[in-house]
Design brief:
It is a single chain. With 280 residues, the chain is an alpha+beta fold. It has two domains: 22-119 and 267-272, no CATH class; 141-266, Gcn5-related N-acetyltransferase (GNAT) (Aminopeptidase, 3-Layer(aba) Sandwich). The protein is built from seven helices and eleven strands. The protein has an eleven-stranded mixed beta sheet with strand order 1-2-3-4-11-5-10-9-8-7-6, with helices on both faces. Helix 4 (147-158) packs antiparallel against helix 5 (162-173).
Length: 280
Amino acid sequence: MSADGRAGESAGAARFLGEQDRALLSRVEDAGLNASAPPQQRWMDGWLVRLSPGKAQRARCINAVATGRQPLAQKLAACAELFRALNLPLLVRITPFTQPPGLDSQLAEAGWASHDDTRVMVLPRLAGAALSPGPAPEAGRWMELPPAAFAEAIGSLRGSSASARAAHAERLRSSPVPYRGFALVGADEDQILACGQFAHEGGLVGLYDIATAATRQRRGLGAWICKRLLTIAMNDARPEAAYLQVGADNAAARRIYQRLGFADAYTYHYRAAPAAPGTP
C-alpha cells in the first residue's frame, strides 16, 4: 500500500494533492525541469523534447509545456523519428501542468500505457524546520564530489550501466542550475555508504539522488543525508522552500520525507508509445 493509503491505485490523471499554493507548485515544476535538463534537448511546437541516453526518464521524454499549433499526430510522428534514431523509447511525461489538459486521455485512448506514478513532495517553509542532522548514524567521511565522481557514486549504489553513469555526469556538468553532490564514504574510502545532492534556483532547493547502500539501509542514513543537504543549502542561499520527487510506491522513502516536513503536492507519470505492429 502506498503511504497515502490508496492501495492499488493507478496513476490516472495527473493531479494536485492537498491545498498547496499553486503558484509555488508551478515554480517547483519549473525548477525540476531546469534541474533535469540534459544537453540533448530541443523545443518543438510547445514541447520540450529531451533525448539523453541516461537512466533518468525525466531527461529522455517529452514535456508538453505549451499547447502548440501543429496536430498531435504530426508532432508525435516527428518525435518518434527522433527517439527511434537514438534507440530511445518514446515517452511523454504527464503532469497537472501538461498542455493541453486532455493530452493524457488522448494518449490513453491511442493505447499509450501509463507507468511510474510519482509524487512531487514540497516543504513550503524551510525557515524554522527541524533540520539539525547531528552526528552521522554510520562512521565515515563526509565529502563533496564533483559531477563525474557523484555520478559514479550514485551509479554504484543503483547498479547503473557505464553509459548511464557517463550520461548522468554529462547532464550534471551542463546543468543550467548548480548542483552540489555529497557522499558519506566508508573508512576504507572504497565503499559509498550513502549519497545525495541538491540543486538550488530562485528560492527553491531540490533534493535529488538520495540513496543508501543496501547494507546500510534502515539505520537513519536517508533522513540524515536529507537534513545535512538542506542545512548546507540553507547556509548557501537561504532558500524558502524545498521539493523532491519520489515513486508513489516507495512507502519507506515517503515516510522519511514526511517526517522531515515534506507533503505530497502533485503527481506525474509517463505514457509510453505502443509498440509498432510486428515489433517483438
